[in-house]
From TrEMBL:
Localization: Cytoplasm
Residues binding ATP, per UniProt: G12, P13, S14, G15, V16, G17, K18, G19
InterPro entries to which the protein is assigned, alphabetical: GK/Ca_channel_bsu (IPR008145), Guanylate_kin-like_dom (IPR008144), Guanylate_kinase (IPR017665), Guanylate_kinase_CS (IPR020590), P-loop_NTPase (IPR027417)
Domain of life: Bacteria
Role description: Essential for recycling GMP and indirectly, cGMP.
Top-level enzyme category: transferase
UniProt keyword annotations, A-Z: ATP-binding, Cytoplasm, Kinase, Nucleotide-binding, Transferase
UniProt GO molecular function: ATP binding; GMP kinase activity
All copies of domain Guanylate kinase-like, residue ranges: 5-184
Protein name, UniProt field: Guanylate kinase
SUPFAM superfamilies per UniProt: P-loop containing nucleoside triphosphate hydrolases
Family: Belongs to the guanylate kinase family.
Keyword Cell membrane assigned: no
Gene encoding the protein: gmk
Length: 204
């Protein structure tokens, strides 16, 4: 029987650097996780590609996915839907591969209820002012949206204690290394290694 892969959930407030850290992790050759591409009703930002950054959907298409139970979780975040297509996640985990989700905090809560055995990592900013600075510097949101995201961020930061790990994103490279180290440690903790030893002893 194939041992199931790990469901890794990276969450945290808007602008903390989840996307940047995720890209950092996936740009490394030794990364063996599979990235789950989300669906959203948000319009593509410059350079974003359908099927790579997101599956861009109309509101109607997204609501059909909800009605047809095609999402592991979804949330309405600052005026748009975002959700995780469930089929890809299940198939990949069942094939023994680790799946990496990068999602906001409400959705992570839903995944926690459906997949309590997942690994939940909260990415935290060095400070609130640095968080705001990052959203502003990114230059992708209007002033109104920045205010909404900062308001949501205060509530989201209160949820960090519900996570298995909190990783500070002070420097991108360090945050990537910390997350990868956590995943390695979790695999050991979940007794994969012990399981292999048991098998080895059975053979001997
Ligand atoms: N450690 C860091 N130090 C300084 N700037 C950073 C760091 N990490 C990310 N940034 C910058 O902060 C901005 C926000 O990063 P990013 O878009 O990755 O955040 P996010 O959490 O994915 O946001 P959202 O949830 O809104 O999609 C970007 O301009 C990025 O370059
Ligand atoms: N609940 C979910 N949240 C998601 C998903 N994919 C992305 N996100 C999060 O939404 C916000 C906004 O993203 P942006 O690309 O518009 O800046 C951010 O926190 C993402 O992590 C998802 O499938 N489900």
């Amino acid at each position: 029987m194939i041992e199931k892969g790990l469901l890794i959930v990276l969450s945290g407030p808007s602008g903390v650097g989840k996307g940047t850290v995720r890209k950092g992790i996936f740009s490394q050759k030794d990364t063996a996780f599979e990235y789950s591409v989300s669906a959203t009703t948000r319009k593509p930002r410059e350079g974003e590609v359908h099927g790579v950054d997101y599956f861009f959907k109309s509101r109607e298409e997204f609501e059909d996915m909800i009605a047809n139970d095609q999402l592991l979780e979804y949330a309405e975040y600052v005026g748009n839907y975002y959700g995780t297509p469930v089929e890809y996640v299940r198939e990949t985990i069942d094939a023994g591969k680790d799946v990496f989700l990068e999602i906001e905090v409400q959705g992570a809560g839903q995944v926690r209820r459906k997949f309590p055995e997942g690994l939940f990592i909260f990415l935290a900013p060095p400070s609130l002012s640095e968080l705001e600075n990052r959203i502003v510097t990114r230059g992708t949101e209007s002033e109104d949206l920045i205010r909404s995201r900062m308001k949501a961020a205060r509530e989201e930061l209160e949820m960090m204690e519900l996570y298995d790990y909190v990783v500070e994103n002070d420097e991108v490279e360090l945050a990537c290394e910390r997350i990868k180290a956590i995943v390695v440690a979790e695999h050991c903790r979940r007794e994969r290694v012990q399981y292999r030893y048991k098998k080895m002893l059975e053979v001997d």
